[in-house]
Amino acid sequence: MRILVTGSKGQVGSQLIDIINSGSSEIGEIPQAVRNAEVIGKSSRELDITDAVKVSTFIKELKPDVVINSAAYTNVDGCETDESRAFMVNALGPRNLAMACEEISAKFLHISTDYVFSGVSTRPYREYDLPSPQSVYGKTKNMGENYVREFSSRYFIVRPSWVYGYHGKNFVYTVMKTANEKGTLKVVNDQIGTPTNAEDLVHHILKLIVTDDYGIYHCAGKGECSWYEFAGKIVQLAGIPCTITPCTSEEYPSPTKRPAYSSLDNMMLRCTVGDEMRNWEDALKNFIENAADFLR
Length: 296
What we know:
By secondary structure, this protein is an alpha/beta fold. The chain is built from eleven helices and twelve strands. It has helices at residues 11-22, 32-35, 52-62, 76-81, 83-103, 136-151, 171-182, 198-208, 227-238, 267-271, 280-295; strands spanning 2-6, 38-42, 66-69, 107-111, 155-159, 163-164, 184-188, 192-193, 196-197, 215-218, 225-226, 243-247. The chain has a six-stranded parallel sheet, sandwiched between helices. It has a two-stranded parallel ribbon with strand order 6-9. Strands 7-12 form a two-stranded parallel ribbon. α6 (136-151) links the parallel β4 (107-111) and β5 (155-159). α3 (52-62) runs parallel beside α5 and α5 runs parallel beside α6 (136-151). The mean pLDDT is 95.
């Protein structure tokens, strides 16, 4: 098996390559076919997914069996001020990859987001719930999903939420750094979601790509919390003395309307390859115990 990973320098892309090369994740071994795979990682500088001609040419020459797209413009506030870039990366990029994969009959796994939903639900969103994004980021990611479904016949669309990983920037690292430096934090308490360890996400992505169970998947940690509760658990597990004050979204200035509720239910995983996603607190504890090796 030959696997192409786009966005290979991001936190999910980096972890994908690490786990494929190591043969296992914190959850357990990955499928044998993946352990024996040849993995090729391409960053946005090495492969511009917004260039349809270059994408098609590269994939035809490489002939991967599977393409995993972890490339995205994830600066949620930045998407509001640079809609064209957001659309090119989050919508046209997946379209170009899906079309190129279809030309060579390759499987295509695209990583999306919980932000495709409106955030007005009172229960975790399931795969059959209709998207209704409220932000430019969510709208462009939703368009990317639509393009993948339109142009690929062998697709997996995977929606995680509140992802953090060992590589790159994320909420966990930011909270730890700020808590250490300032000793105080103010965090919103009226946005509810599901923190997701990238290790868990990658483990399930690799379970999926060896199957023909195509479709849309939610892939988030079990349980839910507010950003305030998430931050509190981070400093507690890291042993950092810090005073955390809750605030409302209105008190925290942002140009982006974020979902008030975006917890995800992993129904499709349960019905196909199995849901081994850990409780968010257990996965966070494991992450903080291991993160020191990556922060040196």
